[in-house]
Each structure stands twice: as C-alpha cells, then as structure tokens.
C-alpha cells in the first residue's frame, strides 16, 4: 500500500522518485529540515481497516523549535492538482523568518505585526511525495485523509488553544474548507487562492471539460505529463527551469501520475457524480463559516475565473479580497502571497488583538499657516456635518416643476457636428424624483437587491443620473467604469468589480456579451425582440420604469427602506495611468461628505445651476439641489467640448457654474472664434469655473479668464480616492509663482492634509507634518475620503497604514504660507547620487526651453545612483523617438539646471508622451523610465 | 597634502601620465619618470627605459617611495604576445622590482574595460577584473595585470588600482584626435544615433583622482576604483561637443549598432591580417570593441569612489569642452 522509501533521516534519504543527497538541493526554495514524512493510520472508507499511509509534508515546526520560537498558530496548506506542497515554500520561508513578537519593538506605521507561524504544507495521498495508495480517493476521502493527518500530527487537538488557519489552492481549496468545517474549534481563519466550491449551476470551465473527456482524460493526465505541463505553463512570468523541474519531480512516471488523473476524474461535473453530495455539503457549509477569510486571486486563470471568486464572496461576504491584476492560476508562483498572508494573519486571524496603538504623534502646525490661524475653509477639524442622504434633496422637491437636469444631447440623437445641435431634453425635479422612485422600485421588482452591484455603462445625461439616484435610493451599488479607462481597462474594471447587473447602451451590452462581462444585462433603451435575444437582455430601463410606476400608481406603497449610511454606495475607478485602474469604494456617508465639501468649498447652493463637463462632480448636481446641464460633447473625449456647445449649455439654464477638464477647456479656447455674441454674453454671466481632473497651466487658465471675465477660476487637487483635497484660484496661482512642483493651494473644507517626510532613501516616515519646505508623501484625512480600495486588500492596507489617513502616493511640500505643492508621484522619485529629486519642477523647467514642449523627467539606472533624463515632446514634433539634437539637449539641460539644480544626463525626444486616456495628462513615468533606460543602454527600443 | 616623497611615474610621456607627473611635482614630490621618451611634465627627472628590460626597471625604482604605473600597450588591435609582454609581464617585473627596492606604495592605473564584458553598464560599481571575460587583448592583459598588482597588496607594500574611464582633454591623441580626424574625413558614424549613455573623465580630473588614490592609500589599498566625471552623456552628444570645440562638423549619420558590431569584427580581422602582410600600418576604421564602446551604455556608480578618494571632479564636462575649444582656438 505504502510506496517505498526510507523514513526521513538526517543525511541521505530516499523519497519516491527523488534522491536527496546531503548538500544537494533539488527543490529550490525548500530548506533542509522542512521535508518530512508522517505515518498516518487511515480512517478512509476506501481503505482496509488498519491501513497506514506515509505522508510527505513540508513543515517548519522543527526549525521554529530549534530556534526557540513559539509560533502564533499553524497554517495548514493544501495544494491542488497537479501541484504539491512545494507550492507553499515561500509561505514556509516567510512564516519562519517573521520576527517574533518580542523582538519586533521597532516597526513603522507601514508594517503590521507579522509573527512566526508554523506551516504544515501537505502532499495529498497519491500526490507529491506522499504514498501511492492504489485506491481511487474521492473528495470525501480526501477531507477525511486530511483529518487523519492532522490527528496524527497532533494538530487541532481538543482543548488546544493554538489556532489553525487553512490555506488552499485549486481543488485544495474545497478540501481545506471541508477540513475547516469539521474542525471549527481551532479554526481561526481560511485563506483561499484560485479555487471553487460552487455546485449549483456549476458548469465546468472549458479547459477542464476537455481534460475530463474520456478521449483525452487518461492520456492527458496520466499516460503523458500533458496536464502537468499545461498547468506549469500557466505561470506568469514563466517558471524558472529548476522550479518547473521541482513541480514535475513527484510525477515523472505514469504510475506516479495516477493520482493526477483520479483527481481530475473526481471533479463533480453534475448531480449524478459520486462526489456531488460531499461537494454540496461543503459548499453550503461554507456559508456558516464566520472566521476571518482572505481570498487571493489571479484573474488570468483560464479555469478558476472571477466567477468563482464572486461565488465565494457570496458565501463569505465578510472576506478580505485581493485580486492580483495580471496574475494567473499559479498565483503563489506569480506573486508574493506570503507577505500579505502574514500581514493579514497579524491584523485579523488568530493573533492576540494588537496593543492599543496611539495615533502617531504629529509635528505641531507652525504658526502662520492658515490652519493654525483657523482660517475658514482651511481644514480645521470641524464637527462633521450630520448625515443627509444623497437622495434627500430629490425627496424634498417632489413638487418642484423647475428643471433638475438639462441634457443638451439626449441619447439616440446626433451627438455632434450639426450646426444647430440636437434639441435639449429637460427633466424637472418632480419628474426626476418620480422617475428615480419608480426606477428604484422597478429594479427591485426585477430582483436587484440592496448591496447588489450594478455596472452603469451609460454616458452622462438624464438616464445615467436617474439610474445612479435609483441605485442610491434602493441601496444598490453603482459601479461607474467610464470609457476613459480605455477598452481593455474598462473590461478589467468591470470584471474586477464583478457586478450582479449591468445596465448599458447597445454598444456596451454587445461588448459585455462578446467579452463575457459579468452581470445580468439591462438595456438603457428599448430593444427589439431579435436584438434583445442577441444581446441577452433581461430587462430594459423603460420597462422597469413602467413597472415601477405601476407599482406606485394611485397608492402610497410601503416605502423602500433607506440604505444604511455606511453601506457601500458606489465604486469609482482610478485613471489607470500607472498600472491597471483600481476600484475605489465609497459609502453613502462618504459620498454625502463629498457633496458637502463641494458645497462648502464652492458655495454651490440649492437652486444654482451648473454645467457638468466633468463627471464625478457633475453627478452630484441633484444631491446638491443644483440644476445640472450636460453639454453636447463626446464624453469619452473631453477635447470635443466646443465653445459654442458650452455657451449653449450655459444659456439653457442660466448656469453660473461650469465644471470642465483642462483638455475640454483647451478645445473651448481653440473654438472660441466660432462664438456668436449671444454665446459670448452667456459665458460672460458665469461666476464660477472649475477646472478639474488634471493640473492646468496658468497661461491656459489666463486665456480662459478672458472668455469668462466675471468668473472666479478654481482648480482643485484631488484623486478618485479623495475629491477634492485642496483648491486654488487663478490669483492664488499667480501669487504662488514658480517653485518646486505645482502649487495646488490650501485644503478644502473639512480636509486635513499633511506630508510624511521622506528619508534619504525616499521612504516616507510615519509622522505627518505640515511644516514648511519638508518634502514627503501627501496624506489626507477627510470625511469624503474613500472607504476602501475594492478587492485590493493589500493596496488598501498600504494606503491606510497610518490610521485615519489616506496615503495618496503623491509627493509634495507645504510652503511658508501653508500652500501645498505637488512634486510628483512617490513611485517616480529620482534617486541620484546627490539625493532624492522630484520630477514636476524639472519637467516645467524642461518644457520652458525653446524647442521643447511637454516633458517628463525620470531616473535611469540603479537606485541611489540614477542618472536624470528628460523625455520631451519637441516643437515642432519629431517623427522618431531618440536622443535630442545637441542644441536642444543643451537648452533643456541648462533650463533644468537653472530651475532645479538637477544635472540631466540625457535629453530624449518623442513624438508624444504616453498618457492616460481619461485626462490625457498623467504620464506613467515608471514605464517611460524603462524605455529611456533601454534607449540609453544602446538597445533598439522604438517609441515609448 | 602628504609629505614630499620620491615617486616614480611610468608611462609619463602619455597624456594622463604626464599630467599625473606634473601634478605630483607641483605638490612638492620628487618625481622620476620611466619610459622610452622623456615626459613633457616640468620638474621631473627622466629615467629612460622599457618595462620589458628588467635592469632598466630595477634602476628606475631604486630610491623611490611610491610608484604610479601607467605605462602600457594601448591599442584596439595587435598581437596578444605584445600585450602580454608589456602589460602583464612588464607589470609583474615592476612589482617585483619595486618590492625589492623597498617601495611602500604602488598605484596600478587600470581600465574599466577589465570588468566590461560587452553588455551595457548602467550605474554599476567597479566590478572584479576578469581576464577570461574582458573584451580584446588590451582589456584582457590589463585585467591580468590588475589582479597581479592587487594580489601583492600586504604589510609594507600597499597596492591600489584606479581605473579612469575614457580620459580626454587638450592634447589627447587617443580619443579627441581620432574622433576629429575621422569626423574630418566623414568617417565617424553615430551608432544607433549616438544614444548610448557613457561616462568619460576630463584629463585634469583623472590626474587628480590618480594622485588621490596614492594620497589615500590607507583607504584605497587592495581595491580597484573606477574614476569618471560622474556625468554620463549620450555618446553622440559628447562626440558632437568634441567636434564643435575643434571647429569640425559633427557626425550626422547613424548606423545601427548591431551592424557596426558585426562589421567591426570583420574589419578588425581583415585589418590585422593585412597588417601582418605589411599592407596597412594604421588602426582599422572600426573594431568590434570600438563598436561596442560606441553603441552600449557604460556609466558607473561613483559614490564609493568619491568616498574612498575623498574627491569630486573639479571640472564638469562642459568646462572641459570649453577648455578644449580654447586649446583649438589657440592652435588655429
């Protein structure tokens, strides 16, 4: 029964299929002493009574004991098919080396307590280097086997206070959960990576269906190592040859691969399968687990795709989740999961509650700063305004017949290019309130529950506004992924957020169908029968509106319960200029605080009217009680806003406020010549103009001022995670002049802003300061800061590592007048031999050189000895990227040296700097630095 | 400033050697120079001779407190035996003679190419010399010589190696004059549009750094330091700067680096073969080594160098180019 091989010895030993000689390490990353075997009496029904199996495990227990370290608990790690315990070696190493609590006295705010844990990573029977039993072991057997092993190891003994946390990958996930359900007493948490537990409507992924096909199964899994090879090839990046060899080591012959084939054959594809009852028992039992859970996912998994993550989240709604964008099935190979798992263990599962940590001491605010002087709007910690629902204004205006929304280019009409423009459509407050109420009820009748995520792929206008407020009213979560993310980014965002419902225009629905985006599909407009079937549309907004109206007609039905203030309200997305766009989750309370901040900062009173050329703020119009006008423009391209379209929008409701992005304003200026006198007059009545989304150069703003002579021109600084943070107006910009970075003014109402000073190596400290001329990472505390990053547990932990503060990842400083200057991104610091340098001021200086346009300044070479390089758009533009001609190089070099003291090693020219789609302004300097390094190393690098 | 000593400088007829000799003499040291032709450095005594002549070497080191060893066979081409004779055996003989004569300090002037194996170097530390992997006879022989020299470091006999990287300045025949003559003849292409980032060393800075290596022997002994201006520039910009300083039209045409590297190998072989037959007497227009030098990055981490030598370059690249321009204006 038990496959051959001597017991684990001190020196030479033999395990089936592999020879271990002293000093020879055939498994990279596995330390001597971890590998051991255990004789385990079996209780499995498929074994004869009295059977003993020899298990192979990787166990750091002896090493911890030798070091005299008492572990915080045990991680029981269960691999899937066709891997083995080798998959968990990084976890063993990190858990062994974590500092014991008594010697972790000094830790900065960025690191949680990670304590040593014992890790027992098993090789399941018939797998890895455990025994080949000659039996067909099914799911129920395997769950029991694991219990037999832990009993033999003395883990999870009754009365033993030491916690156990299960860790499972692939089919090891469900087996580990099966064990967890039977060992609740010691169970302190579950960690799962790329797995599945869902039997209802369970449809096997195509790749597995093929592997199960009788024609393929035996050949693919057992006779040949094809299944192993394919699985190993899923690693991103590819496995090192030695690592691949280690994964292959236990499965070198068909006889040793029998377990691999049986494992695949035991996948319960339907209710008739022998393992179906066991699967169903576990998957329904999971709902009863109330221990902390951590779900780690590689979304690029052809087998365990995001739908299984969504299913798990449905069963474990309290779970912490991190999706590693770009990683795949072999997640523990693709990414570092060990550090986050240990950090998570330290913060939640199984460890004693952390010592009461006092908020970090803060350097005193120097006298003379607005905050110290208690200047209004300068971020004194005022009493938080009482919570008022975002839909409250709507409720109060149920009888108001004045316009709430004016859509200058309603859906379905020609959007641009006509000289007259399309006819505007207007919705009064009363109509909007009625529609929002009816649609909320209609959505509910269609099955949308509070807390359900609803992806809204609808351009700004009446429909989008109605949908958003209907979701807010119902308590459904509006997922607002916009076309500004780009096609690929949009798909990643939607799949990542995993909406249960997807409302879209035709094009979006077609995309959702084609690309398999999640969410039951709802069309925003009416669709014909054939098209409806083709798009897989379940409902349409007009139908839901009618249904809702019928439900409310003539009588006052039970009102929909109001959502909890701290329930999730919306998911927005970062622009994705540096890596994939991140989902950002807001609660009702935090969105309401955003509304209150805007109101207080810009004096936007109920009854005012604004032109909504910048989405995030514009959507708050109905919450503010302000009439909002959507101008006639292609919202996916801000540059399509013309002066005439803006003037028409202003004139339509006598708007006094205009929200627009710098790119839109640039085009307004470019088309200002087309304005007629009425248009000019309309713009002349604007009293507030807000340029948001990206920094705007002073000369551009000055020209805008000529167009709106009576307007106060403001530009807020903020990010998707905190909108806005600071504000500055045109006179303020002029007064600030030039300096190290971009002056973004003073904190908005209710916001506290500080910096975490940088060390010599460019690492932020943990004591916030507002002291003058200290460069550091900008941190914000405000009631309108995001609740959390969505399904990015690691990112969230990092951004909130300083309790009460959001770390922005931006770097800047305060000046003596208390104004904030933004100098660049933390990830874009230059670490030169002369010290840390920030890029923004150098970029402005470079752009000021004759012959240079927009510029980015990056560091190339190893940290600490980087060479500074300017990458500029030449004027006139060049066709090919490469070194600047010596004259231009000398001018740029001189300008940067004079402006910042930075000595540039090289000046490169490009036809255009790569920027984000949404704002056309944010440069991924990290990617650009990589390109510049290749060019300057003498490689052929093309254009960035 | 250290107390006056008697210092022997070998190879002091060359650009860097004479600058080092002059600098040492200017600081009050008794400077003797050893090479075939007299050194132009003022205030120095010439001991004529060749490194390959043991008796001449023994004469030269007699009475010296310190040796700064710059003499070497420098060329892109040539027979390995010639390189080995001068650079390896010559250095070995000098080390032996110096030790025998009671010399206390020995500065081996080496080259970053001893640790350059053909791939790009971006902000790298000096690295260990490796005769097996260095590219070309010169670099291989210098690598072997550096290892020999550093192995001699011990009580009573301190040895340090200093590797100035691409030294140039007024009067330079190795780089500046070659660049100019090629540019004048229209035979100076840029490789890959001259994008490769390279470090160079202005002459005065290099001489100062060599002297600092001797003066800071208690810190530098047993080590090899790379010396540069710490101002990497794209090679095209440097070549243009040199040409402009001399009033020569800068190179305006570019060939792909891979092509030049391939062609360099072929031309080098052809030229060496032709040279053996007495058909050509100059250096080939392109060699693989040169093509690599001109088309791949090589710039260095100078932090440790500056700390060990307690030194920073007094003159920047642009200062150097101005001096070069003044030199050529004076000559015109």
TrEMBL record, chain A:
Residue intervals of the AMP-dependent synthetase/ligase domain: 422-789
GO biological process: fatty acid metabolic process
PROSITE patterns the UniProt entry points to: AMP_BINDING
Source species, domain of life: Bacteria
Gene Ontology molecular function: medium-chain fatty acid-CoA ligase activity
Pfam families assigned to the protein according to its UniProt record, in alphabetical order: Abhydrolase_1 (PF00561), AMP-binding (PF00501)
Keyword annotations from UniProtKB, A to Z: Ligase
The AB hydrolase-1 domain, residue ranges: 74-334
Region Disordered, annotated ranges: 348-383
Biased composition (Low complexity): 349-383
Family to which the UniProt record says this protein belongs: Belongs to the ATP-dependent AMP-binding enzyme family.
Protein name: Acyl-CoA synthetase
Species, as recorded: Zafaria cholistanensis
Lineage of the organism: Bacteria, Bacillati, Actinomycetota, Actinomycetes, Micrococcales
TrEMBL record, chain B:
Residue span, NAD-dependent epimerase/dehydratase domain: 7-224
GO cellular component, as recorded: cytoplasm
Source species, domain of life: Bacteria
Xref: InterPro entries: Epimerase_deHydtase, NAD(P)-bd_dom_sf, NAD(P)-dependent_oxidoreduct
Example GO molecular function: aldehyde dehydrogenase (NAD+) activity
Protein name (database record): Nucleoside-diphosphate sugar epimerase
Naturally occurring in which organism (per UniProt): Zafaria cholistanensis
């Amino acid at each position: 029964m038990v496959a051959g091989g001597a017991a684990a010895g001190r020196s030479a030993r033999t395990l089936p299929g592999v020879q271990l000689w002293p000093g020879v390490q055939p498994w990279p990353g596995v330390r001597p002493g971890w590998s051991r075997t255990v004789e385990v009496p079996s209780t499995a029904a498929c074994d004869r009574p009295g059977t003993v199996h020899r298990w192979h495990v990787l166990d750091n227990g002896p090493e911890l004991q030798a070091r005299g370290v008492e572990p915080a608990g045990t991680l029981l790690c269960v691999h899937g098919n066709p891997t083995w315990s080798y998959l968990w070696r990084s976890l063993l190493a990190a858990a062994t080396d974590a500092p014991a609590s008594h010697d972790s006295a000094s830790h900065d705010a960025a690191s949680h307590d990670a304590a040593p844990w014992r890790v027992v990573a098993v090789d399941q029977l018939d797998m890895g280097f455990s025994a080949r039993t000659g039996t067909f072991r099914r799911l129920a057997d395997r769950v029991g086997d694991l219990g037999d092993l832990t009993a033999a190891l003395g883990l999870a003994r009754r009365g033993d206070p030491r916690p156990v946390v299960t860790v499972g990958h692939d089919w090891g996930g469900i087996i580990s959960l099966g064990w967890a359900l039977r060992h609740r007493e010691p169970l302190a948490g579950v960690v799962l990576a790329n797995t599945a537990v869902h039997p209802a409507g369970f449809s096997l992924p195509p790749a597995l269906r093929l592997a199960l096909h009788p024609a393929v199964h035996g050949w693919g899994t057992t006779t040949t190592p094809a299944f192993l090879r394919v699985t190993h090839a899923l690693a991103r990046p590819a496995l090192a040859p030695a690592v691949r060899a280690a994964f292959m080591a236990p499965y070198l012959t068909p006889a040793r691969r029998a377990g691999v084939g049986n494992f695949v054959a035991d996948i319960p594809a339907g209710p008739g399968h022998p393992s179906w009852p066991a699967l169903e028992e576990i998957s329904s039992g999971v709902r009863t687990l109330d221990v902390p859970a951590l779900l780690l996912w590689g979304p690029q998994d052809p087998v365990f795709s995001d739908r299984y993550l969504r299913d798990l989240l449905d069963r474990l709604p309290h779970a912490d989740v991190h999706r590693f964008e770009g990683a795949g099935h072999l997640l523990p190979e693709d990414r570092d999961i060990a550090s986050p798992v240990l950090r998570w263990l330290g913060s939640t599962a199984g460890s004693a509650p952390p010592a009461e940590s006092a908020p970090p001491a803060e350097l005193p605010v120097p006298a003379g700063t607005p905050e110290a002087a208690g200047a209004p709007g300068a971020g004194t910690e005022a009493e938080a305004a009482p919570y008022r629902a975002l839909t409250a204004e709507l409720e109060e205006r149920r009888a108001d017949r004045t316009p709430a929304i004016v859509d200058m280019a309603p859906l379905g009409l020609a959007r641009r290019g006509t000289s007259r423009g399309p006819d505007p459509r207007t919705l009064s407050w009363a109509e909007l309130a009625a529609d929002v109420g009816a649609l909320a009820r209609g959505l509910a009748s269609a099955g949308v529950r509070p807390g359900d995520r609803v992806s809204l792929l609808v351009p700004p206008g009446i429909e989008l506004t109605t949908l958003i407020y209907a979701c807010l009213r119902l308590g459904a979560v509006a997922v607002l992924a916009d076309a500004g993310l780009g096609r690929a980014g949009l798909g990643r965002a939607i799949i990542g957020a995993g909406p249960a419902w997807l409302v879209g225009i035709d094009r979006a629905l077609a995309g959702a169908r084609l690309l398999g985006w999640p969410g039951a599909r709802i069309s925003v407009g009416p669709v014909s029968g054939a098209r409806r079937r083709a798009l897989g549309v379940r409902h349409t907004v007009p139908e839901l509106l009618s249904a809702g109206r019928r439900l409310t007609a003539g009588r006052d039905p039970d009102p929909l319960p109001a959502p909890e203030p701290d329930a999730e309200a919306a998911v927005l997305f970062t622009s994705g200029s540096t890596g994939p766009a991140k989902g950002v989750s807001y609660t009702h309370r935090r969105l309401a605080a955003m509304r209150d901040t805007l109101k207080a900062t810009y004096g936007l009173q109920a009854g005012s009217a604004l032109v909504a050329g910048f989405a995030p703020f514009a959507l708050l119009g109905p919450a503010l009680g302000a009439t909002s006008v959507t101008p006639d423009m292609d919202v996916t391209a801000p540059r399509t806003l013309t002066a005439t379209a803006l003037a028409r929008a202003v004139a339509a409701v006598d708007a006094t406020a205009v929200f627009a992005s710098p790119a839109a304003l640039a085009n307004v200026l470019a088309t200002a010549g087309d304005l007629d006198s009425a248009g000019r007059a309309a713009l002349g009545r604007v009293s507030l103009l807000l340029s948001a989304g990206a920094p705007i150069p002073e000369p551009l703003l000055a020209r805008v001022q000529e167009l709106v002579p009576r307007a106060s021109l403001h530009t807020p600084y903020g990010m998707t995670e905190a909108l806005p943070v600071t504000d500055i107006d045109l006179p303020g910009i002029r007064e600030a002049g030039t300096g190290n970075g971009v002056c973004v003014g003073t904190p908005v109402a209710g916001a506290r802003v500080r910096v975490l000073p940088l060390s010599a190596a460019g690492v932020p400290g943990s004591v916030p300061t507002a002291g003058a001329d200290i460069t550091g990472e900008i941190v914000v505390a405000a009631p309108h800061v995001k609740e959390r990053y969505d399904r990015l547990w690691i990112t969230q932990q990092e951004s909130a590592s300083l309790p009460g503060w959001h770390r922005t990842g931006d770097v800047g400083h305060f000046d003596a007048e208390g104004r904030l200057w933004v100098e660049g991104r933390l990830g874009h610091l230059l670490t030169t031999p002369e010290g840390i340098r920030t890029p923004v001021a150098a970029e402005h200086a470079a752009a000021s050189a004759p012959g240079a346009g927009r510029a980015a300044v990056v560091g190339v070479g190893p940290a600490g000895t980087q060479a500074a390089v300017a990458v500029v758009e030449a004027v006139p533009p060049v066709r090919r990227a490469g070194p600047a001609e010596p004259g231009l190089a000398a001018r740029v070099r001189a300008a940067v040296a004079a402006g910042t003291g930075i000595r540039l090693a090289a000046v490169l020219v490009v036809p255009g700097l790569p920027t984000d789609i949404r704002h056309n302004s944010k440069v991924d300097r990290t990617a650009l630095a990589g390109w510049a390094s290749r060019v300057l190393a003498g490689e052929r690098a093309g254009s960035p | 400033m250290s107390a006056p000593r008697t210092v022997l400088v070998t190879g002091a007829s060359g650009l860097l050697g004479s600058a080092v000799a002059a600098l040492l003499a200017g600081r009050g040291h008794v400077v003797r120079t050893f090479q075939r032709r007299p050194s132009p450095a003022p205030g120095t005594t010439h001991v004529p001779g060749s490194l390959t002549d043991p008796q001449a070497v023994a004469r030269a080191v007699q009475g010296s407190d310190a040796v700064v060893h710059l003499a070497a066979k420098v060329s892109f081409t040539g027979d390995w035996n010639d390189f080995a004779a001068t650079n390896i055996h010559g250095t070995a003989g000098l080390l032996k003679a110096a030790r025998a004569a009671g010399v206390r300090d020995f500065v081996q002037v080496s080259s970053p190419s001893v640790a350059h194996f053909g791939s790009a170097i971006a902000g790298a530390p000096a690295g260990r010399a490796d005769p097996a992997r260095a590219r070309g006879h010169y670099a291989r022989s210098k690598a072997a010589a550096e290892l020999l020299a550093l192995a001699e470091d011990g009580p009573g006999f301190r040895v340090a190696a200093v590797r100035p990287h691409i030294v140039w300045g007024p009067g330079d025949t190795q780089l500046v004059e070659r660049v100019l003559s090629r540019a004048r003849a229209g035979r100076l292409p840029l490789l890959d549009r001259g994008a490769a980032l390279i470090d160079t060393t202005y002459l005065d800075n290099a001489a100062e750094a060599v002297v600092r290596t001797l003066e800071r022997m208690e810190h530098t002994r047993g080590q090899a330091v790379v010396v540069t201006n710490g101002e990497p520039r794209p090679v095209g910009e440097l070549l243009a700067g040199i040409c402009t300083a001399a009033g020569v039209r800068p190179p305006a045409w570019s060939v792909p680096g891979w092509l030049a590297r391939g062609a360099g190998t072929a031309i080098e072989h052809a030229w060496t073969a032709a040279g053996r037959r007495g058909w050509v007497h100059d250096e080939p227009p392109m060699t693989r080594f040169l093509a690599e030098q001109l088309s791949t990055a090589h710039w260095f981490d100078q932090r440790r160098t500056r700390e060990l030598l307690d030194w920073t370059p007094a003159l920047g690249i642009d200062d150097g180019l101005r001096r070069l321009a003044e030199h050529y204006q004076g000559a015109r």
